[in-house]
């Protein structure tokens, strides 16, 4: 078997595979040989391979890892077929266990509020950071959507944000009161050439990049004593989780997130925007009723 593996790896090397890929193929086939134990891997049947997958799965290998190993085995048996070592490919019709779906991580409501409320400072970039993260949490923005925002995407009169999502699809989202306050504070600090359309800028007056936003949030989370690593998409997950917990309106949250569907079987159904705004105002923990001012609050 060792000789067969060596010849297979040599074949892949001649085909131009990288050393990293060659090492991975060799390790995957040697793992199969070790898992089979009683029977040589070259003689494995489809049932033998299913048992090997089940055994590795029971040992804790993820669906992603098993899929990669099965792909290596499939290539190995295909090579054996081409070289007269087998008449069939026992891995041809096999599938690895489904990859587990990791639940998105979200901050608790008080944790999100504590993080955002502690982003303070005298630097104009601090005002920018607070505006960015309030807006991400307020509107459920993806990182790419945040980076792409321009000045004219913010409708201050109606408190709406125009978002360019995946596939070039645009959507409107209501902006919460706190995010509006922080956006105005940032615009008081924003300094850029007249032709620069970006809403959020770096220190040198150019559009802020995604990596910079990730780093700033990570640094703020550490500085404010967050108990876990925080990234921008976590704020988006928090938006969805908190709004859904409060409203129970799955389709409204789906619309606000810009999702075509929430699962492979659930198709998005459009909702009237006024209904979405009503759900948002009544449910989001940092929203405020439209037209309501501090003077309207009970004393």
From TrEMBL:
**Transmembrane regions:** none
Q: Which residues form the Tyr recombinase domain?
A: 102-281
Looking up HAMAP family in the UniProt record yields: Recomb_XerC_XerD (MF_01808)
Q: What is its main location?
A: cytoplasm
Q: Where in the cell is it found?
A: Cytoplasm
SUPFAM superfamilies named in the record? DNA breaking-rejoining enzymes
For this entry, the protein name equals: Tyrosine recombinase XerC
**Active site (UniProt):** 142, 166, 233, 236, 259, 268 (o-(3'-phospho-dna)-tyrosine intermediate)
Give the top-rank taxon of the lineage listed in the UniProt record for this protein: Bacteria
The encoding gene: xerC
Upper lineage: Bacteria, Pseudomonadati, Pseudomonadota, Betaproteobacteria, Neisseriales
Q: Where is the Core-binding (CB) domain?
A: 1-81
Q: What does this protein do?
A: Site-specific tyrosine recombinase, which acts by catalyzing the cutting and rejoining of the recombining DNA molecules. The XerC-XerD complex is essential to convert dimers of the bacterial chromosome into monomers to permit their segregation at cell division. It also contributes to the segregational stability of plasmids.
InterPro entries named in the record: CB, DNA_brk_join_enz, Integrase-like_cat_sf, Integrase_catalytic, Integrase_recombinase_N, Integrase_SAM-like_N, Recomb_XerC, Tyrosine_recombinase_XerC/XerD
Q: Which family does it belong to?
A: Belongs to the 'phage' integrase family. XerC subfamily.
Keywords linked to the UniProt accession: Cell cycle, Cell division, Chromosome partition, Cytoplasm, DNA integration, DNA recombination, DNA-binding
- CDD domains in the record, alphabetically? INT_XerDC_C
Q: Could you give the subunit structure recorded for this chain?
A: Forms a cyclic heterotetrameric complex composed of two molecules of XerC and two molecules of XerD.
